């Protein structure tokens, strides 16, 4: 199970306890910031700060890194389009070789030319064991990467891996700078240089990241010339500063976003996500590992009420890692809330209610603990709602709080309220969540889920280059999850953003669990056309 | 004081203290490594953050080895110590930067904040103390004294939150935090000055009660002593008596206080920097501690310990100078 921690929501909720702790600087002196000279500048409030800005250490691996470009990029519909590559890659018939022709004439912001050597350097450095990149496993399929001349890069894979092209949105670092420093601690990690639409002017840690438009950007100079991301961990402070005009946009939790509904000058954007919350049902737990208990919990849980009560309606019931509105979702696998059916499943399986209402089978009491991350209010509420729904069916679940240090050693036997979600390809979540050989490998397959049919299907899904075949494979996975749910998926959570109207109508991508710098309506800030600048009708391309 | 300064005894005391500082610093750094190793936080988890929760075990183990945190405690401490003595403070894992760079970038802002706060506390504390001692039991004395006792009990971070709420959110007259406004890219004097007011005032005011109470007590006592009564009898003006005689002997106690308040000032700055997003060294200490960043934590602890030892030395030197009866034998 990939319990991508929810640093985000933690920061959002835990910090409430610390109250105003992380207030970045408010700007009461200059309320004119919102208009006036502001037409070509934008200041947005975000809740998270990257640890490093080096792609070699994992920054921007899912694209939209502002400072850098990948070989490919994802558009508003999450379709791949060429970026530093001149076109989509050529894939060999056996799916083992990917050939990228590079875009000619691209320069890094320091004026040096971009070339095949930079691509090779970036990928080889990430694959190097001495590089502290925690996402290296995502490039597990890569056997080698080589340059063919100045403008062609060839990847050879160890095994056919259909979603490989999705991985190549990873940003490319300049060899002539990053190659001369310590990859883990060199100045490049905090003062990066890339080919991207923006150049980092200042990173004041804990406070803000300031960018200025790259005038020589190969995709045309952005019209928003100055772009600032203020790091404000406290939700209330972020909302206050948005209202005061210090910020032009911000990510907000549903209850605070509601406060801007009547504000005519601002618009709220709800980004659909793959960001799920789920309960792991460990195979090695006598109760949670029992198929009847798993199936009963799957229908006993009232997902719609969770969406309405916990998420204020900003989300969707989840039945698996794939959201119901995704093209990869298997129609007909939705589970309806049916307490009577849950009780029937348990009765038939021999789980008989004891004196205290908790069911018992062969002397085993239907009870197990459910851990959630300390301070994460969202997970806590999901855990409590889940325990309360389970109780109605006669299963006693006790919600307990702990840090990952406490939870990790217990994951084999205890249930965990986990979160995750990577939208770019159905393989990304399902493989690491469900593959039996990954059971207990770090935070992969936290439930130790073990199902031969699922193993075969997810393997087929990643190896086949044919979309129809892949769809069939993932349909099999989702149907198997109805028969034997190793996890109870609860909700997919929408991410809410409030942005000033003067930037026009904006879009959002389908967002992952992690709120990186890439998320939000500013995923494509380089293409924004603020009012007052587009008057000439002349757009540089 | 017109007589020559006793350079010899002062230098001897400084030397003795410097020798004494060596085992103290060694013990403190080892203590930091031991406590950090025993802490429930995992440095690899802190380093990898969210990405670590999707990483494979092999990947995490490799990072553990790269960071060197898989080695035993004593080895780690010894490696750190030997390279630190050669001038290499190591790399901060949480900041992804050499420790020396982290300190160089942030030290100045912390010193600015702490010095401003200390200045506020000393000047305001002394001034109010003298005024209160002049009329013990008067409205000023009673008002300020009770406020001082209340402030003594109030935690600095609580004062900080209160100040943000009042001045930044309600009155909207001062910025709530940071070094400069969000939209500003350059660090200008005006920006820093306006952003310094709240944190420095809060930190200063949280330290003020001690100075106030000491000066008030010292001056009150001095006013009752023979030299002061003699001065009054000779018909010297109240002003001369108060500032020339009473304050001078009352200040003695405050000099010792300056040294002993340094640790309090450092812990106070720790909280204040966090509350106000001040990009100083103290804020980095908090991050280093929660992320079990051994190199940074050890370097910062050495710095803090050195500051405390220096503060004590300074106040002992000053005391010896101000009161010849006290010998430089510390």
Automatic annotation (TrEMBL), chain A:
One of its GO terms (molecular function) is peptide transmembrane transporter activity. InterPro entries: Peptide/Ni-bd, SBP_5, SBP_5_dom. GO terms for biological process: peptide transport. PROSITE patterns: PROKAR_LIPOPROTEIN (PS51257). The keyword rRNA processing does not apply. The keyword Transport applies. One of its GO terms (cellular component) is ATP-binding cassette (ABC) transporter complex. Gene3D superfamilies: Dipeptide-binding Protein, Domain 1 (3.90.76.10), Dipeptide-binding Protein, Domain 3 (3.10.105.10), Periplasmic binding protein-like II (3.40.190.10). Residues 517-541 are annotated as: Disordered. This is Solute-binding protein family 5 domain-containing protein. The lineage of its organism: Bacteria, Bacillati, Actinomycetota, Actinomycetes, Kitasatosporales.
From TrEMBL, chain B:
GO terms for biological process: transmembrane transport. It is found in: Cell membrane. PROSITE patterns: ABC_TM1. The chain crosses the membrane at residues 111-134, 146-168, 196-215, 294-315. SUPFAM superfamilies: MetI-like. It is a multi-pass membrane protein. InterPro entries: BPD_transp_1_N, MetI-like, MetI-like_sf. Residues 107-315 form the ABC transmembrane type-1 domain. PANTHER family: ABC TRANSPORTER PERMEASE PROTEIN, DIPEPTIDE TRANSPORT SYSTEM PERMEASE PROTEIN DPPB-RELATED. This is ABC transporter permease.
